[in-house]
Design brief:
The chain is built from six helices and 42 strands. By secondary structure, the chain is mainly beta. It has four domains: about 190 residues, no CATH class; about 210 residues, no CATH class; about 120 residues, Immunoglobulins (Immunoglobulin-like); about 100 residues, Immunoglobulin-like (Sandwich), CATH 2.60.40. The strands form 13 sheets. Strands 8, 9, 10, 11, 12, 14, 19, 20 and 25 form a nine-stranded antiparallel sheet that branches. Strands 5, 6, 7, 13, 23 and 24 form a six-stranded antiparallel sheet that branches. About 45% of the residues are buried. The N terminus is likely disordered.
């Protein structure tokens, strides 16, 4: 891989950075507070958050950490590394504190009250909050020119439908002159805040996921794109609805969100309004090094990874106006959208600030860089940089930025057959739901009367009951599940009601998706059992040798519409299937090991056919790229041959179990090819005398 800048070692739910050999600065390894990751894995986009200003794990391919993985649980990452930047002018100079490219300048907060940069992990404003704290004056990574910046990053995730394809971020950017370099003014001017996504779409194409990407912007461009050839804006080609897209124009530019036409969307003056989408995105394009058109990798990489501005403080280039009541309005806008490839990575603070300001020579005079085709660039490895400002900030003050990052099925949604998800919303629809989610619960603000995250109620999404704590294990030839009753005791955050209505038990084979319903314990069950709900379940139908995942969800009874209050009906909500067993934050299966069996007729190979890890196995466990021989005798030899009779593999099996796993590698430790294979199991007695033998076959499809 071209991007080996830092090495991460997986420790429990976190990863600890080691500096790159290419970095001019080495960390002080004696410090107690170290860079770490914490996972967001309850929605359909999985990621890790850090306490040093990066989003995603740049070494996800080797650590197994998720990095904007989509669909969640499959191990196909869309993000190489996301980063937080802040820059300012000080006299005649510019300085940028940044994360990324092996030159990390944000450290975990050393303040004891900040718990080494981790203030909260667990349910809170969302179903899973991760609140981290980092500074540009900390002691882990040295920064020769600190601006005295402390960032409190609050990241939120949900598992409920409509809101499970994005992760929301609130950034509280605090300026403290006393912690910066000498000579800083009381007020920093020309402050720019930026988020960059270096997205490799995606690792389903394990060969070169980074060199066949394309980047673009969906939002207001101040007329800069009116004369472009490839991607002029505004355009009106489709009708983008919340849950579908129609192939016909509707008179509204496609890069604008229609807000106020959904029951969850309310405006202060009752109007339906249009909002520029403020969305940068990257997608998989045709690989120029291969002859075929592999855009989207035949459905393996259909996702568009995006970042969208939700809220920023007032700035010069926002959209200002007046509503029908005569009140002033403001729609926060992205200041610049830049992109570049690895040949133009900025190496100095001046270069970084130029990209943020849209004045870099590689911006070709644009504040909003058009799609690369329009400036003569081809498919390649791109990063986007989305910038907000310019702002002024006085020492002791706080800038507040709200941002959402996620993955959608294409730009406008579509049907996923590769992973069996059915219809999936596109990046535009997911980004629109992020804006909807931010103002849910707001009483005195909306997208054109904006409010900071601490100025009104935000993110008040109808939630299902609390997710039960679940434990399960193999007991003989069964799997026993035990879960907590927290869902029955936790009031709904919307109205304080105890609206719990039941549990459902699910099982999935091979991967943590494609769930099969095993049992539904509803209110009728409880009524027939003295009002009691069960908290145990035994699965006696699981087959030996197959990796299984289990989840227990809780659901509520929903709400009818309230015509007096004007609130819409809320359907019954169910928790996500997220409480299955995990190891190091990744899905971890249980397997029933078959008992010793003396009848060779019972020997089986599972799975058969084996369809390859790229299509069904999670990338996180030791069971990937393996098959199992089950119901084996206590003393036997297993031999695998090609259909032409060439020996591929041989192993002795002795022990108290009847299961043997093989990693599908030959005697020369080479991965076997697709094809039909024969196996022979020879049974021996206690004196190692041959008793019986069986020949079978299995199919490998890569």
């Amino acid at each position: 891989m071209r991007k080996i800048l830092i090495i991460l070692t997986l420790v429990a739910f976190s990863s600890v950075f080691a500096r790159s050999l290419n970095s001019p600065q080495m960390p002080n390894s004696g410090k107690a507070c170290v860079p770490e990751f914490r996972p967001h894995i309850i929605g359909n986009v999985w990621n890790v958050e850090s306490n040093v200003g990066i989003f995603g794990d740049p070494n996800a391919g080797s650590t197994g950490n998720p990095s904007f993985d989509w669909p969640g649980g499959y191990g196909y990452y869309y993000q190489w590394e996301g980063r937080f930047w802040i820059g300012a002018k000080v006299g005649d100079n510019v300085y940028v504190s940044h994360a990324g490219y092996g030159e990390y300048e944000f450290s975990p907060s050393d303040d004891p009250a900040d718990n080494c940069g981790w203030l909260k992990i667990g349910p809170g404003k969302s179903q899973w909050d991760i609140v981290s704290v980092y500074t540009d004056y900390g002691s882990y990574y040295s920064n020769p020119y600190p601006l005295g910046i402390k960032v409190i990053q609050k990241s939120y995730q949900w598992s409920v439908d409509k809101f499970n394809q994005f992760i929301a971020y609130e950034f509280y950017v605090i300026y403290d002159r006393s912690n910066g370099m000498s000579g800083l003014p009381t007020t920093l001017t020309d402050v720019l805040v930026a988020i960059t996504f270096d997205s490799d779409v995606c690792s389903y194409d394990a060969s070169d996921p980074h060199i066949d990407d394309m980047v673009c912007f969906d939002g207001y461009t101040w007329g800069e794109w009116n004369d472009l050839t490839t991607h002029p804006l505004p355009v009106d080609e489709v009708t983008v609805l919340a849950d579908t897209t129609l192939d016909e124009p509707d008179g509204i530019p496609d890069n604008w969100q229609i807000y106020g036409d959904d029951p969850d969307e309310k405006t202060l003056d009752g109007d339906t309004i249009l909002i520029p989408r403020n969305m940068s995105y990257i997608y998989d394009d045709d690989n120029p090094t291969t002859p075929e058109d592999d855009t989207g990798e035949d459905g393996g990489c259909p996702g568009y990874i995006f970042g969208r501005l939700i809220y920023a403080p007032p700035a010069k280039y926002d959209l200002y106006g007046v509503d029908k009541n005569g009140d002033s309005t403001r729609i926060p806008l992205v200041y610049t959208h830049s992109w570049w490839n690895w040949n133009n990575d900025p190496g100095t603070d001046e270069n970084k600030y130029d990209y943020m300001a849209g004045t870099h020579s590689m911006n070709f005079g644009y504040r909003f860089m058009p799609i690369p085709y329009d400036v003569g660039a081809a498919t390649f490895d791109y990063r986007f940089l989305q910038t907000y400002g310019p702002f002024h900030i006085t020492s002791g003050e706080t800038l507040k930025i709200v941002f959402a990052g996620g993955v959608g099925y294409g730009l406008n949604g579509g049907f996923d057959t590769k992973f069996g998800q059915g219809y999936v919303r596109g990046a535009r629809q997911v980004a629109d739901y992020a804006m909807t989610a931010y103002y849910m619960g707001s009483t005195n603000s909306d997208p054109r009367h904006p409010s900071a995250p601490d100025e009104d109620i935000h993110w008040l999404i109808p939630l299902p009951p609390a997710t039960p704590e679940l434990h399960y294990s193999v007991l003989g030839n069964q799997v026993k599940l035990v879960w907590s009753d927290i869902a029955e005791k936790t009031p709904d955050p919307l109205d304080g009601m105890l609206d719990f209505a039941g549990y459902r038990v699910y099982r999935a084979a091979w991967k943590a998706s494609g769930w099969e319903l095993l049992a539904d314990f509803d209110s009728a069950y409880a009524a027939a059992n003295d009002g009691e709900y069960p908290h145990e379940y035994v699965d006696s139908t699981a087959l030996p040798g197959i990796p299984y995942y289990y989840a227990v969800t809780a659901y509520d009874c929903g709400r009818p519409a309230d015509t007096i209050q004007g609130t819409p009906a809320i359907p019954s909500l169910e928790t996500g299937k997220s409480n299955y067993l995990k190891k190091n934050g990744a899905p971890y299966p249980v397997i029933i090991v078959s008992s010793v069996n003396s009848n060779l007729d019972n020997v089986k190979v599972v799975p058969n056919p084996y369809y390859g890890s790229a299509s069904w196995e999670p990338q996180y466990t030791e069971y990937m790229n393996k098959i199992a021989f089950t119901n084996l005798p206590a003393n036997c030899r297993i031999t695998v041959y090609t259909i032409s009779g060439d020996k591929v593999y041989e192993a002795e099996h002795r022990g108290a179990t009847g299961t043997f796993f093989w990693n599908l590698r030959s005697r020369g430790d080479k991965e076997i090819a697709s094809g039909l294979y024969l196996y022979k199991v020879e049974q021996y007695d206690d004196n190692n005398e041959l008793v019986d033998w069986k020949i079978g076959k299995f199919l490998v499809v890569r």
